């Protein structure tokens, strides 16, 4: 089976496996079994084997997976074997926090610019990334072959910003606003509603 045929649920689990493998390599663990991966991730060993089988045979029965080899394969499957250039649209508190995190903690992406409309913060830098006018999205996206944008503007500005992102040729938007975006069919939007996530977690804090 190929990369495109894998279900979304499988694709969403691959970065979990990658994080575990990164930690294993840091601790110089050369071999990991599906059972041990199950213990680390909370997914069943059978589920892990099925997920990986979408892309090939990476392990040895009775031995397990070579952590370095499996990590390299997952990086290529996801498309993280090369750094991905991304932009952040919105230099508010959330935009700044996400920019700082991705610069310092996420080696798989490269934040090339942060965009905003506020003239008071344009020209400032978040670590070493400059805040530039939103009117320059297309110019910078084309120059750096950017395909992913993190959208962190207020809801009332989200669709306008999304339109500019789409015009620039970017095809993936990670939407942190509360607005439902209208985009062409070739643009993939992932919505992250932090308030809903928190409210759902409160169930576990209050249930008896």
Please, could you describe this protein's structure?
The chain is an alpha/beta fold. It folds into 2 domains: 3-78, Winged helix-like DNA-binding domain superfamily/Winged helix DNA-binding domain (Arc Repressor Mutant, subunit A), CATH 1.10.10; 84-196, NAD(P)-binding Rossmann-like Domain (Rossmann fold, 3-Layer(aba) Sandwich). The protein contains 8 helices and 10 strands. It has helices at residues 8-26, 34-41, 45-53, 67-78, 93-105, 137-144, 155-167, 194-206; strands spanning 31-32, 59-60, 64-66, 84-89, 109-116, 125-126, 129-133, 148-151, 172-175, 188-191. The strands form 2 sheets. Strands 6-7-5-4-8-9-10 form a 7-stranded mixed β-sheet. It has a 3-stranded antiparallel β-sheet with strand order 1-3-2. The N and C termini lie far apart (44 Å). The model has no long low-confidence stretch (mean pLDDT 91).
């Amino acid at each position: 089976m190929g990369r495109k045929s894998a279900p979304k649920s499988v694709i969403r689990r691959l970065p979990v496996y990658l994080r575990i493998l990164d930690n294993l390599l840091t601790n110089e663990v050369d071999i990991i079994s599906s059972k041990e991966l199950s213990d680390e991730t909370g997914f069943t060993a059978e589920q892990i084997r099925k997920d990986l089988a979408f892309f090939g045979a990476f392990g040895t029965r009775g031995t397990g997976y070579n952590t370095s080899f499996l990590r390299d394969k997952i990086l290529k499957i996801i498309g993280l074997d090369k750094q991905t250039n991304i932009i952040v649209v919105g230099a508010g508190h959330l935009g700044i926090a996400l920019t700082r995190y991705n610069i310092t903690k996420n080696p798989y992406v490269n934040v090339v610019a942060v965009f905003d409309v506020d003239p008071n913060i344009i020209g400032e830098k978040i670590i070493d990334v400059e805040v530039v006018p939103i009117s320059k999205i297309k110019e910078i996206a084309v120059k750096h072959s950017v395909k992913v944008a993190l959208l962190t503007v207020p809801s009332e500005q989200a669709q306008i910003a999304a339109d500019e992102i789409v015009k620039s040729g970017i095809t993936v938007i990670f939407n942190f606003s509360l607005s439902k975006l209208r985009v062409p069919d070739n643009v993939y939007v992932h919505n992250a509603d932090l308030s809903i996530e928190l409210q759902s977690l409160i169930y576990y804090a209050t249930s008896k």
